């Protein structure tokens, strides 16, 4: 009922359309999903069954080809900049794209409460966190509205007197955007903002668990004057996700793939995209270390640990997955961390003002947390606090802290993606860095120290794409987001994010 109410407020569902957990069919909002009927829209988080009939492989392919008319299609190559994005037509150009993105940002901020409630309803995260996500999400539209005016080329001094050498930057074309459920709004705008600023059109496939935020963004895009065919949404069922992903990655009319999700899925999409050698951006899994050295401010480290680990109930790719605490302050840190967990964290309904920990996305996620705890305890780990499902329901889990953890346990070898904090005791800096770098992924890493020399050493030695020094939350629109090793390819946000959607063309003019 909450989802239905707010979607009606945003104009996505016509009143009196009703969202039923049992799977009542409703019309496709064609203004948002200009692909016709047939795509599956899963219900909110605790519902069962699709609202629309399952989509087919062929329908998705037709949708891409229809939208490709804005990119390559039957046009001449020289028309790419003009037809790739209707916002580049006429006199508007970069200025027009900037204005439309700016207006989209303003509409998000005007509707931030409604958008946040949609996130909480379909994702389960606490409303306060959802409100924060909407502000963060909107900031990418604001940022890339400004970056749209700064796509600069180059004039290069030529070696011959009768030549002039230019470098142009042009949009890659149609971009397929595949996003996760844990940040159903921000992961879209971080990609789409850059793509539209560059002059591309996009086909967004939101996570099957959280399609409503993508559709709400589409309605606001329409209100902002983003032309039809520029922002497109393809919701689908869990059963059709693999097929839709394959079509997006293999269709030759799609020029760019941007994906946020697991490393395993990323590898599959990379294989699909290799057939047509597409431009690819991948923001994949993490296994973030959080190192606390003897020189650290323990109270500050505990506060950072609480924020880094338990935001969104531990369901973020940059959440700390392994705590490494030096021997001299280990016991003090564990004691204070346990007290902070019991005092500051409250499991509950996301719409309850005092809730800080909502449900996990599904029972499979809960089972993984349980598996990691069981494995650790069987090998000698101790449960300091938490350790079991919460009485509120099957998808709610108690914030958990483990001590006496070793590197042989599953929770230190795999990303848990849940409210589990395992603590490993170490003795030397070299030991901590070696443990941190032993993973085959490297997205984010954190450490706490008040030794300037140590700060420089460890920051440079950690094999991750992002480092938080004496900070537990590091994401920012101005800063490049991305990882190394098997955590992905490319960067999002910042001045570098728009480059992922641009081709560089060298032009040599002779006979002058």
TrEMBL record:
GO molecular function term, any single one: succinate-semialdehyde dehydrogenase (NAD+) activity
Keyword annotations: Disulfide bond, Mitochondrion, NAD, Oxidoreductase, Phosphoprotein, Transit peptide
Aldehyde dehydrogenase domain sequence ranges: 95-507
Domain of life: Eukaryota
Catalysed conversion reaction: succinate semialdehyde + NAD(+) + H2O = succinate + NADH + 2 H(+)
Gene Ontology biological process: gamma-aminobutyric acid catabolic process
Entry EC number(s): 1.2.1.24
Enzyme class: oxidoreductase
PANTHER family: SUCCINATE-SEMIALDEHYDE DEHYDROGENASE, MITOCHONDRIAL
Role played: Catalyzes one step in the degradation of the inhibitory neurotransmitter gamma-aminobutyric acid (GABA).
Subunit text: Homotetramer.
Family named by the database record: Belongs to the aldehyde dehydrogenase family.
UniProt name for this protein: Succinate-semialdehyde dehydrogenase
Species of the source: Zosterops lateralis melanops
